[in-house]
């Protein structure tokens, strides 16, 4: 039977055709069975064009028995429109799904490349961290040895400075007495007296101690002279007493002399 030219669909038939088209698409994609499994009873009518049990021969025979020629031609036009509409819908669906598939494929490929780059960077980072750790360990070992050497050298340096101070002490005391810096001389001597007393059994320290004792005796004489000087004011007298006490002069004797002033 030849297809008649398409004519505008009668009013009120858009919803029906849309439902039929959706039903056909569901049937094509196997969604009708899923709907039936959810509680909807599937029809077994062989003339239900949207049903799973549709039989074209039975459907055509019923149409020829129940429809007139004009109705058959209208039905043909309606089916042609539905076929074209379904074909367009399927092409649209295929195109959209194909684009989504291509986009998903590109995304997966990009993610794979990104993960590959990230994995390579992580491997390089791990290698660099191992190198840094090894290098840091070598530096720490080297610095540890040098730190111990520096500590030893620092201790030796401090000891040498103390020894230098002790060896220069007699000359310092004489210089202070010449400059009448009696307070500074007493501070020098009291600073070194404990060490000199502790190591007096050693010849070098014994000689320094003897020289300092002679100079300190001279210093005590100078302080007593200033202490007995009637022109000395109270501040000078108090300073002389304090210095003589630091040099371990007898306190009772100093008190008596102070009271006699």
Automatic annotation (TrEMBL):
What does the UniProt function comment say about this protein? Acts as component of the GARP complex that is involved in retrograde transport from early and late endosomes to the trans-Golgi network (TGN).
Subunit structure and binding partners: Component of the Golgi-associated retrograde protein (GARP) complex.
- Output this protein's name: Vacuolar protein sorting-associated protein 51 homolog
* Annotated localization: Golgi apparatus, trans-Golgi network
Q: Which Pfam families match?
A: Sec5
Phylogenetic lineage: Eukaryota, Metazoa, Chordata, Cephalochordata, Leptocardii
**Family, as annotated:** Belongs to the VPS51 family.
Some GO term, biological process aspect, for this entry: which one?
Answer: Golgi organization
**Keywords for the protein's UniProt record, in alphabetical order:** Golgi apparatus, Lipid transport, Protein transport, Transport
Q: Which terms in the GO cellular component ontology are assigned?
A: cytosol; GARP complex
What broad class describes the main subcellular location of this protein?
Answer: Golgi
């Amino acid at each position: 039977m030849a297809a008649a030219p398409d004519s505008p669909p009668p009013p009120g038939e858009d919803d029906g055709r849309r439902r039929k088209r959706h039903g056909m698409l569901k049937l094509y994609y196997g969604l009708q069975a899923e709907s039936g499994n959810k509680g909807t009873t599937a029809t077994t009518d062989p003339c239900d064009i949207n049903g799973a049990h549709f039989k074209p021969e039975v459907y055509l025979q019923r149409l020829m028995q129940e429809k007139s020629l004009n109705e058959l031609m209208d039905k043909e036009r309606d089916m042609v429109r539905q076929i074209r509409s379904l074909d367009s819908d399927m092409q649209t669906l295929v195109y959209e799904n194909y684009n989504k598939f291509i986009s998903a494929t590109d995304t997966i490929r990009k993610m794979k490349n990104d993960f590959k780059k990230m994995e390579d960077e992580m491997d390089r980072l791990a290698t660099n961290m191992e190198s840094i750790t090894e290098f840091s360990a070598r530096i720490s070992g080297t610095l540890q040895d040098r730190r111990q050497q520096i500590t030893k050298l620092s201790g030796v340096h401090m000891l040498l400075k103390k020894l230098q101070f002790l060896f220069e002490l007699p000359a310092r005391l004489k210089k202070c007495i010449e400059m009448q810096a009696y307070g500074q001389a007493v501070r020098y001597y009291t600073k070194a007296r404990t060490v000199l007393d502790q190591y007096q059994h050693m010849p070098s320290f014994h000689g320094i101690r003897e020289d300092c004792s002679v100079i300190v005796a001279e210093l005590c004489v100078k302080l007593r002279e200033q202490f007995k000087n009637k022109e000395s004011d109270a501040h000078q007298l108090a300073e002389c007493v304090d210095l003589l006490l630091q040099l371990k002069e007898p306190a009772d004797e100093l008190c008596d002399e102070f009271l006699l002033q």
